[in-house]
Amino acid sequence: MEYVIGVDIGTQSTKALLVARDGAIVAKHSSSYRPDTPKPLWAEQWPSVWFDAVGECIAHCVAEAVAQGIDAASIRGVCVSSLYGGSGIPVDEAIEPLHPCLIWMDRRATAQADRVREQVDLDRLQAITGNGVDSYYGFTKMLWLREHRPDVWAKTRYFLPPNAYVIHRLTGEIAVDHSSAGNIGGVYDVARRGWSAEMLDALDIPARMMPERLVESADIVGGLLPEWAARWGLAAGTPVVAGGVDAAVATFAAGATRAGQHVAMIGTSMCWGYINQHVDARHGLVSMPHVLNGTRDLYVFGGAITAGASVTWYREQFCQAEVAAALALPHGDPHVLLEEAAARVPAGAQGAMFLPYLMGERSPVWDAKASGAFVGLSLAHTRAHLYRAVLEGVAFALRHNIEAGRKGSESLDDKLIVVGGAAHSPLWMQIIADVTGFPVWTIGEEVEAALGAALLAAVGTGLVTSDTAQNGWSTLIERAQPDAARVARYADYFDVYTALYPALMPSMHRLQSI
């Protein structure tokens, strides 16, 4: 039997899987960390944290395989996917990092985004790139570095996405996959599948800062250097495959490879996306080449910045009683207690509504100054009501993106696949079904992007054909069917949800300015 390793660098942890060519998961390991948030709305990470986590995960998977009697020489390839790295890592001529990576959730480049809107032809930028202008996008974060870190800018040779940087450390080769390049926005020509000289010039970003070699996500970038091969027990020269942005790779892992298939990845953030062959940036979503058949297919997505992060925030700030009570229970999980209580609350949380804009918001709102809110509170509301309102608020944000996506998709499949931490919650799966009106399915393997990375490694090394990969290695499991009565009730609440942001936006912005 032959094997591959799939690695996914996430916002709060890195995961790796050792997978047989038939899709059986043989070993897995994860390593946790946190991004640095030195100021409000800032989020960054030194790439050494990611590289160390990748090494730990690969070493543990190899060691576990050997303990099972598997010859490490039968591991034929490694693929690395990663979080959207925003600006990318500015590196010097020696490819040494000069500054932490400003990751996807960093929103410090608001002023730079405003200036781009004022000074650049937005219709032309949208037409070329398939994307809009916001501090979410990497090109605006690059402009922030140019303005606020001129010493870094002067020494920068390249901006490297997280997976590209790690792969360079592994192989000595520099290449950027098309999904990561497209997700930078602003500087990538989505029709030509290459850097846009016109937009780079308009933004005054030197073209030399964009790595010359662009590759497909299943392409081999290079061979594993002897140093790491010896340290981790792999063969020197083991092929390392390019990978891509984690949301697209997770969508691929869930089997979404054909137009209209759509997947919601709900972890720290929420990304909902579908496969299409064209894009219209005016609908407010993000686009990039897909990680399979990327010369033809696009991954078009939208998302909420704080999805699972909203749940974590609420639990940590307001649910100390449940956290303490859970310690005395066999499962030890306060979410079980919170869900039991919230399940007894009727749909709509008796008029309590939550806006999950705790770090500004991405699509389709696109407002770094948006802020979270509970609306409709009364003395009758309890922690259980508010916990349910948080789950519902993220589900409304998901539907908000789906409605934007319908404008650009010819059709969406009649089922919604949900992956990520939210899939562990039966209550949340039912709320999502009732809010969106879609039957909700999840994948049984619960490993999402790391499994997609492993499958890309198998394609890249020839263990699996592209045609076979279209059906994926995952097993779909039905989790929830929409209830007609709750669907109708949530439709009314959704109308209120979409009206709240425009109504509160002036006050949100004023509070930010004060």
Which key terms come to mind for this protein?
Nucleotidyltransferase, domain 5, 514 residues, phosphotransferase activity, alcohol group as acceptor, alpha+beta, 19% strand, seven-stranded mixed sheet, six-stranded mixed sheet, Carb_kinase_FGGY_CS, transferase
Unreliable runs = none
Shape, principal axes of CA atoms: globular
Tell me the name of the CATH homologous superfamily of the domain at 3-244.
Answer: ATPase, nucleotide binding domain
Name of the top-level CATH class of the domain at 3-244: Alpha Beta
Radius of gyration: 22 Å
**Fraction of residues in β-strands:** 15-25%
Arithmetic mean pLDDT:
95
Biggest pleated-sheet summary: 7 strands, mixed
Short recap of the structure:
The protein has a domain of 242 residues: Nucleotidyltransferase, domain 5, CATH 3.30.420. The protein has 18 helices and 23 strands. The chain is α+β, with helices and mostly antiparallel strands and 514 residues long.
